Amino acid sequence: MSASNIIVLDDAQALYVRAAEEVAHFAGEAICTHGEFTLCLSGGATPAATYELLATRFHLSVDWKEVRFFWGDERCVPPDDPASNYGMANRTMFSKLTLRPDQIHRILGEAPPEEAARAYEEDLRAFFGLGEGDFPRFNLVLLGLGDNSHTASLFPGSPAIHETERLAIAVEVDAPERRRVSLTVPVFNHAARVMFIVGGESKAQAVKNILQGPRDPERFPAQLIAPEDGDVLWLLDKPAARMLT
Ligand code: 6PG
């Protein structure tokens, strides 16, 4: 990982602001170039403040009508469940914006997991005009990092990390909300750009594992995220970057 792909911010607030700045910048670049911005959101708690900033402080920095929202993974819960990644994005961002329903490509957390995965795959194929064996190319994928080195819902030791054909799969994970739908490694690795947003002391060991640890994707699945024709940007706060040399 070249140093230029790693940006360390002083603290969590600086991390959230920089992440919002980067999203707004990449949105402008994509909309100018392609007329739209396909943004794949991450879940969990870390990105919430950035989503809030995008919809408030950066509201006028993005041409929101040209943005299409997707998710890297979703918990298999209803959209109004506090654990829903869609629900978090809705509370922090969508509820503050004026968006058309067709801009939001939600994973159907309320449906049976395999059904939700298949439906999401069909949505991706239709939107990106994919043929058999093709993968969607998101303008930007946001990812978080678990303290056990998972990303999206690709967990250590999970067969999901070896999936090379499906776009989205149903998985069982060792975390609250065990049943999930996750995009697969090849989808992430077809992105034009992946941006990890990672903060807090609890992530320092996982960050060290991914960026400077031995190559061991079984234990450190986020090591698999390496877009073939795209780049990876790591936004870290100082506590999360503490163990990096
Ligand atoms: C999820 C996320 C997951 C998350 C990490 C970090 O659905 O939980 O996709 O990969 O990004 O677990 O979560 P925190 O930001 O809450 O630490």
Strands across the major sheet, in which order?
Answer: 1-9-8-5-2-3
Rounded radius of gyration (Å):
17 Å
Structural class: alpha/beta
Tell me about the biggest sheet?
6 strands, parallel
Shape descriptor reads globular
CATH topology: Rossmann fold
Quick one: how many beta strands?
A: 9
Instruction: Name the beta content range.
Output: 15-25%
The number of helical segments is 7
CATH architecture: 3-Layer(aba) Sandwich
Give a written overview of the molecule.
- The chain has 245 residues and is an alpha/beta fold.
- The protein has one domain: Rossmann fold, CATH 3.40.50.
- It is 29% helix and 18% strand.
- It has helices at 12-34, 48-55, 85-92, 113-128, 185-188, 204-212, 238-241; strands at residues 6-9, 37-41, 67-71, 73-75, 140-143, 168-172, 179-183, 193-198, 231-237.
- Strands 1-9-8-5-2-3 form a 6-stranded parallel β-sheet.
- Helix 1 packs across helix 2 (48-55).
- The model has no long low-confidence stretch (mean pLDDT 97).
- Bound molecules: 6-phosphogluconic acid.
- The site of 6-phosphogluconic acid (6PG) has 14 residues, from loops.
